[in-house]
Amino acid sequence: MPAKERLDLNEFAWIAMESPSRPMHVATLLVYSLPEDAEPDFLNQLVAHLRQSTEFVNPFNKILRRPTPLRPYPVWERNYDLDLEYHVRHLALPKPGGERELGMLIARLHSNPLDFSRPLWEYHIIEGLENNRFAVYLKMHHSIVDGIAGVRMLQRSMSSDPDDTSSPALWSAPIPEELFEDKTTTSRLRRALTGARRSAASATHVARQLYDTLKAGINDKDPLLLPYQAPMTIFNGRIGGQRRFATQNYDFARIRKLSKTAGCTVNDIVLAISAGALRRFLQEQNALPGRPLVGGIPVSLKPKDDQSAGPAVSYAMANLATNIADPKRRLEVICESTRRAKGVLQDLSREEIENFTAIIMSPNAMQTSLNLEGRTPPVFNVNISNVPGPTEPLYLHRAKLEAMYPVSAVTHGQALNITCYSYNGSLSFGYSGCRDSVPRLQRLAVYSGEALEELEATFLPDPGVVDIGTAKAARGKKASA
């Protein structure tokens, strides 16, 4: 990475959205069990060890420099002298150190914006969690990371060997240089010329797909949804700066078994669980609209072997069928909607998907630039994302990673975010919401467990027999604030 580099359009958009009421950082909550033979000062030693790791890889060494009269655009500048006592923090939960206390702390930490005079990340080690556990809360600005990139970075900082104590600190874990895009002026010009040739060849393809999509979107008989076809809900107004957070954790085998039995994908089951919970949550508050809610589904453009940081995301729209009481019919509508949405993108290249998304979502960009979000109809109602994670157990200096939960960003017009991570046979949901707009967020987490049970009762031949950990996972493990 050069000493200074311009922000690309995606990075600039996330930075431009930042405000006191809308901090645009994302985070991951990791829960570890202490080694059985851990010394009383194990965490003190771990913090001291991490603070001694003073080699910084991209994006942990990037600091934002605002425009100046002589340089009317922001740039990233490489920083070699980070204050690790600031970035790496050691906290403790109040007794009894349960899931509720943890959820309250995470909600408060997630409400605090990052310091833009420093590299845009924080790493909090939290002790005092019941059952001989501790937690790590990693916060990074969305301009330098997305969900998949964040999971892959975390994975590089841990080991599959339970006895390994040599894992590098997260900010020192090496990333092959070839995975980083060259952003020098010469390379930008070269890519621009190459892109112009490609664009000329693909413009017709994108234009044809846009025409077909817009035509389908206004056809009532076609399940394809367009932006701004969502009803207004309590989730789609203006937000404040304070956050709520709740979690649920399920045995992934339950989700996989249900998807196979119902003939759909795991993502469809995630959407159906969320839809069932949202329907009940809104009904309870007499706020369920007559039209179905629309979910915004992030679609990663990164190939499986891409370990680089930085966001690379498109969007699809899914009908959540929250106006349908029958869970079987609701899932059928969701599956039909997602299959149709995937069909729009499947024949496009990555570059074509980026261009297609930029055009189809351009009204949202206009809405954002005019600060109209939350004052005009929403592009969709709620962001629902499923991020694949490690499939084997991981260890941080012999401490076993038990669960990992996403803590996502919310924004004006999108006061609720539902994201889940898969890890080592489990699926963990993180519910992030505006404290003022989404009251009693923990109930949504509870209702998700009940929505899963409802789907099992509908589709499984014997709903009383489910996979390992049924009694434990039926309600899920939850933390809330």
UniProtKB/TrEMBL annotation:
One GO molecular-function entry: diacylglycerol O-acyltransferase activity
EC number: 2.3.1.20
Residue intervals of the O-acyltransferase WSD1 C-terminal domain: 311-455
Recorded catalytic activity of this chain's protein: an acyl-CoA + a 1,2-diacyl-sn-glycerol = a triacyl-sn-glycerol + CoA
Pathway: Glycerolipid metabolism; triacylglycerol biosynthesis; Lipid metabolism
InterPro entries for the chain: Acyl_transf_WS/DGAT, CAT-like_dom_sf, O-acyltransferase_WSD1-like, O-acyltransferase_WSD1_C, O-acyltransferase_WSD1_N
Protein's GO biological process: biological process involved in interaction with host; glycerol metabolic process; response to hypoxia; response to nitric oxide; triglyceride biosynthetic process
Keywords from the named record: Acyltransferase, Glycerol metabolism, Lipid biosynthesis, Lipid metabolism, Transferase
GO cellular component: plasma membrane
Listed Pfam families: WS_DGAT_C, WS_DGAT_cat
Coiled-coil regions listed: none
Domain of life (superkingdom): Bacteria
Residue ranges of every copy of the O-acyltransferase WSD1-like N-terminal domain listed in the record: 15-270
SUPFAM superfamilies named among the record's database cross-references: CoA-dependent acyltransferases (SSF52777)
Similarity field: Belongs to the long-chain O-acyltransferase family.
Protein name: diacylglycerol O-acyltransferase
Protein species of origin: Luminiphilus syltensis NOR5-1B
Lineage: Bacteria, Pseudomonadati, Pseudomonadota, Gammaproteobacteria, Cellvibrionales
